[in-house]
Design a protein that fits this description.
Blueprint (H helix, E strand, L loop, with lengths): L7 H10 L3 E4 L8 H10 L5 E4 L12 E4 L5 H7 L8 H12 L6 E2 L8 E4 L21 E3 L3 E5 L6 E4 L3 E5 L2 E4 L6 H12 L3 E7 L4 H6 L10 H9 L4 E4 L6 E3 L4 E7 L7 E3 L2 E2 L5 E2 L3 E3 L1 E9 L4 E3 L12 H20 L5 E6 L7 E6 L6 H10 L10 E5 L8 H10 L8 E9 L13 H4 L2 E9 L26 H14 L8
Parallel strand pairs: 1-2, 3-20, 4-12, 22-23, 23-25
Antiparallel strand pairs: 2-3, 5-19, 6-9, 7-8, 7-11, 9-10, 10-19, 11-14, 12-13, 14-19, 15-18, 16-17, 21-22, 24-25
Helix pairs in contact: 4-8
Length: 502
C-alpha cells in the first residue's frame, strides 16, 4: 500500500498485508468482553483488531469495529509512511519536521461519507456497536478515537480535537468539555453570543487525523486538517456537513452532527470513564450534551473504537502515538519561541508526555529554566509537561537509563536543581489532584503544581583540579582508545566470545 492512506480501509488493508491485523470472527459481546480482549492485546503491543461478529449487531446498520490500529510503534511508523523498524526518535523527528510544513485541505462536492444520510427519527446511536469498555465506566463511550470538529464563530477557523463522549440516549451524547481546550474556547464564544455550538464528530479515517487531534497544536489561522495534510504530505479532501458549515473528511466512515446548548439547565450526568492515567477519571457529574441532528456514513460502515489508560507494563493504544505527537509539538514550540539548541524531546508512553525530557546544548546559566517556563506558559501543558527534566547533549532523552543516571548524579536539590511552580492549571483527570479542585464547571480545568528537574551540569560548580579543570568528572566506564585497541587485537585469544567484544 502506497502512503498516504485515503481512508481507514486502506490503512486496515495495509495492516493486514503486513501481518499487523487480526480479524475476530467469533461472536463477541460489546458489553465488557470486547474491551477486555482489546485491553489484553494492547498491553502486549499486539495486532490491530477488526471485530466482525458483535453480539446484537449481526444485521445492524454498523456491524464491525476497528481498534488498536496505532497500538504499537510499528503501526505508528506505518501511519507516517516510515519503515516498520523506525525508532521513536525517527518517528518524533519526522513528525516535528513535517508539522512545520502545513498543507491546506481542499473542498470536494461529495464523498463516500455521504452515501447514507440520517435525520430526525432515523437517528439512533445504538445502531452502532459502541462498547462499554471498562467495568466501572458510566456507560457506552462513543467518542474515544474520533475527531471532534468545531468552528470559531468569528474567524470561521476550525478545530479538530479528541474529547470523550458517552451515549445518553439514541440522539444524545454527554461530553467532557474543558474551557482551556480549543473547542472550549469556541464554546465560550457561542455562549457569549447566546447560541448553540455546532459540532461534527468524525469516526474512522486516515490515522494521522487522530495524531493531530490528540496533540496540542497551536494553529493560528489554520485547522488540524492543515497539519494532518502535513503528516500525510498531501491535502485532506473535505466535504461540508449537512447541518452546519463545519467540514469533514470525504472518505470518513461515520460522521455525527449536532449542537451543544450552553445553558447549564440542559446538562446531563456523564462519567466516569477509564482515562489516560490508567485510573477512572471525571466522576459522574452534570456535563454539556451534544444533541445529534444528523448522521452520515459509508455503506457497511466500520466504527473506530478506542481504549485509553496506561500503567506500568499495561500500555494502551494512546500511549504509542500520543507521546511522539505531543513531543514533536513541544519541540517545535521551543524552537518557535526562541529557546536555542534543543536537541531532542521525549516523554515515556506510559505517562503520555506528562513527564517530559528535553535535551539541550547548554549555552548559558538558566537555559533549563527557560525550557520549563516556555512549556508551562503554553496550552501544551494542559495535559502534559507536569514534570520537566532537562539534560545535557551527552544524555539520550530516549534512554530511561541515561535519564535516571543524569537525575542521580547531575542534580543537587540544595543547589536548586529541583524547582517547583505552584498552583497552576492542570489536568482535571489527574488522580493526584484532590477531587474538589478538578471541578470543570467551577474552575474550567484542574489544578496542579509543576516540577523542573535541571539535570544539566550545574554551572555554579567551580572547575576542579581533580577533573582537569572541568566542572564534572570524566566517565570511568569508557575505555581509553589505546587499551581498547589492545583488547580488540587480542580478543579471540581470550576465548570469551565475539558478542562481548568492546
Amino acid at each position: 500500500m502506497a502512503f498516504p492512506y485515503n481512508d481507514l480501509r486502506s490503512f486496515l488493508d495495509d495492516c493486514e498485508n503486513k501481518g499487523e491485523l487480526v480479524r475476530v470472527k467469533k461472536k463477541v459481546d460489546w458489553n465488557l468482553e470486547l474491551g477486555g480482549i482489546a485491553r489484553s492485546v494492547m498491553r502486549k503491543g499486539g495486532p490491530a483488531l477488526l471485530f466482525e461478529n458483535i453480539k446484537g449487531y449481526e444485521s445492524a446498520r454498523c456491524q464491525r469495529l476497528f481498534i488498536n490500529g496505532l497500538g504499537n510503534r510499528q503501526r505508528v511508523a506505518m501511519a507516517l509512511g516510515l519503515p516498520l523498524e523506525a525508532s521513536y526518535r525517527d518517528i518524533t523527528t519526522t513528525m516535528k519536521e513535517r508539522l512545520l510544513r502545513p498543507v491546506a485541505p481542499v473542498e470536494v462536492p461529495s464523498g463516500p461519507v455521504k452515501e447514507v444520510i440520517l435525520k430526525g427519527d432515523e437517528i439512533d446511536l445504538y445502531e452502532f456497536p459502541i462498547p462499554k469498555y471498562n467495568h466501572m465506566d458510566g456507560g457506552r463511550y462513543i467518542n474515544t478515537y474520533c475527531g471532534v470538529a468545531t468552528m470559531n464563530p468569528e474567524t470561521k477557523v476550525m478545530n479538530v480535537g479528541t474529547y470523550r463522549g458517552m451515549i445518553l440516549e439514541k440522539n444524545k451524547i454527554g461530553v467532557l468539555l474543558a474551557t482551556t481546550q480549543h473547542w472550549g474556547h469556541h464554546f465560550l464564544k457561542y455562549r457569549e453570543m447566546g447560541r448553540e455550538m455546532p459540532v461534527a464528530v468524525v469516526y474512522g479515517w486516515d490515522p494521522t487525523l487522530l495524531m493531530v487531534a490528540g496533540a496540542p497544536i497551536v494553529h493560528h489561522g489554520r485547522s488540524e486538517y492543515d497539519y494532518c495534510g502535513a503528516l500525510r504530505e498531501c491535502p485532506v479532501e473535505l466535504v461540508k456537513c449537512e447541518t452546519s458549515d463545519i467540514m469533514v473528511p470525504a472518505t470518513a466512515e461515520i460522521v455525527v452532527e449536532g449542537f451543544i446548548n450552553p445553558d447549564p439547565g440542559t446538562y446531563e450526568m456523564e462519567g466516569c470513564f477509564g482515562e489516560y492515567p490508567g485510573t477512572y477519571g471525571g466522576l459522574k457529574s452534570l456535563k454539556p450534551v451534544l444533541r445529534v441532528e444528523c448522521i452520515t456514513h459509508r455503506k457497511d460502515p466500520i466504527f473506530r473504537g478506542g481504549l485509553v489508560g496506561n500503567t506500568p507494563g499495561r500500555l494502551s493504544e494512546d500511549g504509542c502515538w500520543i507521546s511522539p505527537a505531543v513531543c514533536a509539538v513541544i519541540w517545535n514550540h521551543l524552537d518557535d519561541v526562541g529557546v536555542p539548541n534543543v536537541l531532542g524531546v521525549w516523554g515515556s508512553p506510559v505517562t503520555v508526555a506528562n513527564n517530559v525530557r528535553v535535551q539541550i546544548k547548554k549555552i548559558y546559566r538558566g537555559h533549563a529554566q527557560q525550557v520549563a517556563m516556555a512549556l508551562w506558559s503554553n496550552s501544551i501543558s494542559n495535559y502534559s509537561c507536569k514534570n520537566v527534566v532537562v539534560v545535557d547533549e551527552d544524555i539520550d532523552v530516549f534512554s530511561d537509563e541515561a535519564i535516571e543516571w543524569a537525575i542521580s548524579y547531575r542534580t543537587n536539590a540544595e543547589m536548586h536543581d529541583i524547582q517547583f511552580f505552584h498552583n497552576t492549571f492542570g489536568s482535571m483527570l489527574d488522580p493526584s489532584t484532590p477531587l474538589p479542585l478538578r471541578n470543570v464547571q467551577k474552575y474550567g480545568q484542574g489544578k496542579t503544581s509543576r516540577v523542573l528537574i535541571d539535570a544539566t551540569v550545574n554551572w555554579e560548580l567551580e572547575p576542579e583540579d581533580l577533573y582537569g579543570g572541568k566542572r564534572f568528572p570524566d566517565l570511568c566506564t569508557f575505555l581509553s582508545p589505546e587499551i581498547e585497541g589492545v583488547i580488540n587485537s587480542r580478543w579471540e585469544e581470550y576465548g570469551i566470545g565475539d558478542e562481548w567484544r568492546p
